[in-house]
Each structure stands twice: as C-alpha cells, then as structure tokens.
Amino acid sequence: MQLFIALIAGLLFGAGLTVSQMVNPDKVLNFLDITGQWDPSLILVMGGALVVFGLGYQFLVKTRSTPVFGGEFFIPVNKVIDKPLVLGAVLFGLGWGLVGICPGPAVANLLSGNIKIFGFVVAMLAGMQFSGTIDRLIK
Q: How many other C-beta atoms are found inside a 10 Å radius of the C-beta of residue 52?
C-alpha cells in the first residue's frame, strides 16, 4: 500500500510541476531574470505550494502523532546555519539559475526525451554519489 501511495503522490507531484510549467527551463529562467523578461507567474506556484504545505503540516502536527502510511515523522532537529547548508544552498541556486531546472522538475521532465534533461539528471546523480566526499572536504 505504501508503494501505491508513493506512486500516486509522485504522479500528482509530477503533474503539478508540468501543469505549472516548472518543468520548462525557459519559464523558470524568465522567472529568475528580474532585470529582463521577468515572468512573475511562478510566484503563485511557489506561494500555493507553501500555503498547502504550511496548512497540511500544522494540521498533521496537531492531529496525528504518526504518519498515516509510515512509522514516524522525520522532522529535522538541527537549526544551525552552517557551512554545508550554505554551500548546498549556493550550489542549488547556481544550478537552478544557470539551467532553469532543479531535481524535482528534472525527474518529472525525463519523459520529454530532452537530452539536456538526461544530462542534468546524470550530473545530479553523480553529485549525489560524490556528496559524501564533498561533505568530508568542507568539514
């Protein structure tokens, strides 16, 4: 049952990214280009996502002690802004700003057949593979 729910959640997430055009790198790059052809429409997408998450999170925290389809909630306890967090945020932002795609939309966009998306996903997976090495180097 958990795998079925994960599949449905992933399909819904991918459909939302597609409908909102978050899988379109040009749309994302226009959103990030505030001095050129700025397209503010993705603010509504991100704002809507934050509202849904915020309300859902507050509801779940107040009404449930465990997830419906899992053993426990995994809520981060580290509240320290450290070098790995800042470096990760900078790398994510640079990657997003350079190519207009981030991990979620990249995976949702794999079915497009775009070779650039496949290249991005391969590079992303390589980065994930070597993240332990990078983590040891910056600490």
A: 11
List per-block mean pLDDT (blocks of 10 residues) for the chain, which spans 139 residues: 88 90 90 90 92 92 83 85 87 88 89 88 88 75
Domain of residue 11: give its range. 2-138
For the chain, what is the domain count?
1
85's enclosing H/E stretch is helix 83-99
Rounded Cα gap, residues 76 and 96, in angstroms:
24
pTM for the whole thing?
0.73
Half-sphere exposure of 54 (CA within 13 A, CB side): 6
Q: How far apart are CA 7 and CA 103, in angstroms?
A: 17
